[in-house]
Specification:
single chain, alpha/beta, three-stranded parallel beta sheet
Length: 179
């Protein structure tokens, strides 16, 4: 099974593989893989009983800035735009809360492992089983290229954003990163 991750602007992916755009601008049903997609009912890691609508909403809600703490309102956002909280508006990022009510802040890599990975894994395991089965079937019949805005699949590489397409690939290959 050959599954690769390609930048959404790549020209060569289409020539050698079945291209699947899993970005927030991809077609249905593949757009459902976007971390911005509002599936609803996603457990907020480290926050028993709390849920969020999307992985990105959870990630942004737990982000703490110099002048802004968690933003619980984001957890109910059903839109796919306007979720990002920026340093321009709130000052430098201090970290991510280790849960909605925790006094502790997590560094970037730890937050990826303890917040982003479990939230996205929940979506894959509970909201995208049919789509994952379709991707597996496509990959069994030939190479598949998953398009994303970034291609970094190394949770420890903090120089680039983490690619959810790379996480999809790792999930399909049973190589999910450890928390």
């Amino acid at each position: 099974m050959e599954i690769r991750v390609a930048h959404h602007r790549t020209k060569t992916a289409a020539a050698t593989a079945t291209v699947v755009d899993v970005t927030s601008r991809g077609p249905h049903p593949w757009v459902r893989f976007s971390p911005f997609y509002p599936h609803g009912g996603i457990p907020v890691p480290l926050s028993p009983g709390a849920t969020g609508t999307s992985v990105e909403a959870i990630w942004q809600a737990l982000k703490v800035f110099e002048t802004a703490d968690v933003d619980r309102a984001l957890l109910t956002a059903t839109r796919m735009t306007g979720l990002k909280r920026t340093v321009r508006r709130h000052g430098p990022v201090r970290g991510h809360r280790a849960g909605l009510d925790s006094p502790d802040l997590l560094d970037y890599e730890t937050a990826r492992r303890r917040i982003y990975l479990p939230a996205y894994r929940h979506v894959l395991d509970h909201h995208l089983t049919d789509e994952l089965a379709r991707l597996r079937k496509l990959a069994e019949s030939g190479p598949v290229a998953l398009l994303d805005y970034t291609t970094n699949g190394d949770v420890s590489d903090l120089s680039k954003p983490l690619s959810h397409a790379a996480l999809i690939r790792l999930h399909l290959l049973n190589e999910w990163p450890t928390g």
